[in-house]
Amino acid sequence: DIFISGGDSSQAEASLDYVNQNEMLMTNYASASPLLSIEEDQLLRLGPNDAIQGKVIAKALQSKGFDAVVIMHRDDEFASSLYGVIESEFVQLGGETPIQVPYPVDIEVQDWSPYLGQADANLVTLRQTYGSSNVGFVVISFGEIVPILLEAPNYNTLYSTSWIGCDTTTLSGN
């Protein structure tokens, strides 16, 4: 049996044990989590996994001359695994371990100031150590990028730092 699963990694992951046990083939167009890179499973992904994206983001950070970064991200499996790849690759390329600013996804955040304030404070500290031009900011988000961007001008250091996003940030449709 073969079937096309739902769109994201969590939907594919929820079905994968059943699919493997029953020797079915599941195709998925958007399950990009590196955690689903399991040898000899029955998941056929039609796109690359996020490990490739994480490596590209780390290389972009390095090519911009950043020695240190703050990464603000969703507190979910997708963003945490992408953060892990970026962290590993960036450190291998000579950068410092990125500072994480996770935010909840199981509730609708109305006030982004605790997360943006934390990111801004971390950027201030990093700039004092590495210099303004050697510090960057990464955001791993979905549609919540819109209120994040609307509030960001209230944080001078964050707003004046170079930002890099990921595919779900740029393709959020908002």
Which sequence of strands runs across the widest sheet?
5-4-6-7
By DSSP (H or I, 4+ residues per run), the number of helices equals: 7
| Amount of helix | 40-55%
Low-pLDDT sequence parts: none
Q: Pairing-aware structural class of the strands and helices?
A: alpha/beta
Beta percentage is: 15-25%
Shape type: elongated
> What value does the Rg take, in angstroms?
18 Å
Number of strands: 7
Averaging pLDDT over every residue, what do you get? 89
Largest sheet: 4 strands, parallel
Order of helices and strands: EHEEHEHEHEHHEH
Distance between the termini: 37 Å
Question: What do you see in this structure?
Answer:
This protein is of the alpha/beta class and 174 residues long. Helix content is 44%, strand content 18%. The chain is built from seven helices and seven strands, in the order E-H-E-E-H-E-H-E-H-E-H-H-E-H. It has helices spanning 9-21, 50-63, 77-92, 113-130, 145-151, 156-160, 167-170, and strands at residues 2-4, 25-28, 43-45, 68-74, 99-103, 135-140, 162-164. The strands form two sheets. The chain has a four-stranded parallel β-sheet with strand order 5-4-6-7, with helices on both faces. Helix 2 packs across helix 3. The longest helix is centred in the last third of the chain and has 18 residues, at 113-130. The relative contact order is 0.14. The model has no long low-confidence stretch (mean pLDDT 89).
Protein traits:
single chain; 174 residues; alpha/beta; four-stranded parallel sheet; three-stranded parallel sheet; 7 helices; 7 strands; elongated
